């Protein structure tokens, strides 16, 4: 959450609740709604590490709100964020361990494990499809997020298929 | 109560099909039992070469099984010949294929109307049906186009209109998005879901899990046999621990 918040502040000063709304609007309903408390905590930490600065703004009928802006150090941190590629996603290693170890335990069948895992992925895939159908058609970023998640699942499903082909031959 | 239920739209028992080509015989379908009820949307997935297209061809009478039986609406099809199957494919079974199989020298309008006319629908009604379907599929204005002038996604929508013009109780789809880009895939997925919501029974063969997830039942097909047959409940039960939020979550 730290760097996305910095990135939103690169556009101009904003207060916590505004940032929450910006994030929701940008990422759409598929993204788990950020908790406003979590946002305030993160903003506090960012301020402590000197990446942003807050300024109290008086409001007539309500308590002061704190408007944050990016510091030079914050801008630098953001630049460094953009400069680095991210780690690649990892294979579902817990499932892989089950698959690899099942035969010697005599407690589970590999094919049963694969089928069970496939059902789980397919159900999630179906939920994604529903989310995609419900999402505002014009929110490209939100659709790309869902599509990315679906493509990852597709890859996991393809891999399950490979496991099944390979292991059924052994039977 | 179970006696009250209508006969399944489609029932298969012990279907077997072996292809005798040049090399060793290919056991495409090795004993398949299947029951598809009215209003179901069933996806059959599996790796290429698993025999899923052969299975679909058997279900649509495009190929005959070496062994086993098939019932349409409770009626045995064992005695059906080529001509009878052709009639069934006009009236009771609509089919869409990966490569659309439109008649290239007929206009879009004629491609859609032809099966209606062949099924004995009066020309005026065939036209009304065609107009309604093309409008529904976002193809109004393309009536006079020839298939070759359309994009792949548009051609598949014409093929869908053609398959549905006679209101068949059963729609079979063989890799309908297999030659489409991801936008076309989403379009096909949306349309199949929409027709399904209105009660259309669909059997879809696909290797694309995204497309399969539009169905409410997914059959995994491996090496000529059904490896798993799962009802998808997506949306009716809340996702467990990881599930959807785990997949979408952006980490701190």
TrEMBL record, chain A:
- Location of the Transcription regulator PadR N-terminal domain: 5-79
For the Transcription regulator PadR C-terminal domain, which residue ranges apply? 91-168
Residues crossing the lipid bilayer are none
The record ties this protein, via Gene3D superfamilies, to:
6.10.140.190, Winged helix-like DNA-binding domain superfamily/Winged helix DNA-binding domain (1.10.10.10)
Q: Which InterPro entries match?
A: Tscrpt_reg_PadR_C, Tscrpt_reg_PadR_N, WH-like_DNA-bd_sf, WH_DNA-bd_sf
Q: Which PANTHER family match?
A: TRANSCRIPTION REGULATOR, PADR-LIKE FAMILY, TRANSCRIPTIONAL REGULATOR YQJI
Name of the protein described by the UniProt record:
PadR family transcriptional regulator
Question: What organism does the UniProt record list as the source?
Answer: Streptomyces tibetensis
């Amino acid at each position: 959450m730290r760097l996305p918040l910095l990135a939103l502040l690169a556009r101009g000063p904003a207060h916590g609740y505004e940032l929450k709304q910006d994030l929701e609007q940008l990422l759409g309903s598929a993204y788990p709604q950020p908790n406003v408390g979590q946002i305030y905590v993160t903003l506090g930490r960012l301020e402590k590490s000197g990446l942003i600065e807050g300024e109290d703004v008086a409001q007539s009928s309500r308590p002061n709100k704190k408007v944050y802006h990016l510091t030079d150090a914050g801008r630098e941190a953001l630049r460094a964020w953009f400069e680095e590629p991210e780690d690649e996603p990892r294979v579902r290693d817990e499932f892989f361990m089950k698959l690899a170890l099942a035969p010697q335990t005599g407690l589970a069948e590999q094919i049963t494990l694969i089928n069970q895992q496939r059902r789980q992925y397919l159900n999630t895939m179906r939920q994604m499809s529903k989310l995609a159908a419900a999402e505002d058609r014009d929110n490209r970023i939100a659709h790309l997020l869902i599509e990315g998640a679906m493509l990852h699942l597709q890859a996991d499903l393809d891999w399950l298929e490979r496991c099944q082909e390979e292991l059924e031959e052994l039977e | 109560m179970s006696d009250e239920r209508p006969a399944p739209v489609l029932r298969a028992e012990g279907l077997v099909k072996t292809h005798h080509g040049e090399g060793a015989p290919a056991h495409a379908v090795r004993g398949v039992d299947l029951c598809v009820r009215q209003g179901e949307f069933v996806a059959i997935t599996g790796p290429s070469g698993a025999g899923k297209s052969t299975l679909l061809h058997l279900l649509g009478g495009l190929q005959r099984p070496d062994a086993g039986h098939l019932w349409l609406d409770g009626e045995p099809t064992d005695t059906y010949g080529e001509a009878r199957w052709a009639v069934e494919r006009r009236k009771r079974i609509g089919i869409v294929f990966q490569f659309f199989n439109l008649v290239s020298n007929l206009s879009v309008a004629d491609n859609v109307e032809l099966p209606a006319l062949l099924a004995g629908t009066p020309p005026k009604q065939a036209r009304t049906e065609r107009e309604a379907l093309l409008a529904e599929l976002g193809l109004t204005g393309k009536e006079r186009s020839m298939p070759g002038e359309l994009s792949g996604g548009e051609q598949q929508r014409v093929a869908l209109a053609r398959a549905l013009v006679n209101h068949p109780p059963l729609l079979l789809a063989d890799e309908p998005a297999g030659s489409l880009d991801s936008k076309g895939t989403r379009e096909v997925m949306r349309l199949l879901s929409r027709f399904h919501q209105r009660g259309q029974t669909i059997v879809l063969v696909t290797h694309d899990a995204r497309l399969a997830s539009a169905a409410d039942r997914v059959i995994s097909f491996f090496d000529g046999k059904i490896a798993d047959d799962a009802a998808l409940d997506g949306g009716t039960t809340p996702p467990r621990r990881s599930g959807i939020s785990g997949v979408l979550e952006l980490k701190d």
